[in-house]
Fold this protein.
Amino acid sequence: MSEAPTARTRPLGTLAAGERSELTFTITQQDLRTFMDLSGDRNPLHEDADFAHQRGFRAPVVHGALLLSRLSRLIGMELPGAGALWTGLEVAFRNPVHVGDRVTLAAELDHVSEATGILKMAFSFTVGGKLVANGKAEIMARG
């Protein structure tokens, strides 16, 4: 049995603009099923190949919120890590993601305020070097 990962703990004063973190993952059919069960979103575009093809997609499209769940993992576990609370989000979905795609999430702090505990982060999701989503997140960090 494997142990659950531990969130990285960083004092606010050790964080700086320009710090980056990257996470690469593959979306599985089980990820999609679990997300649909949790969210209740069973739009046929996400699970019916014929429906997706009829609408111009090569396969069912992964939920954008499923991608964003990986951003939540990065924020809460890596950068900035334990004690971080995601407070704002701007995101644009540029291209579809499909089950089996290998996705890279890259994030960079572009503002750190020790006085307010507010961090701002730019992020992007790519598949094979092609941008699929990008945006900005605001994070409150304590400690």
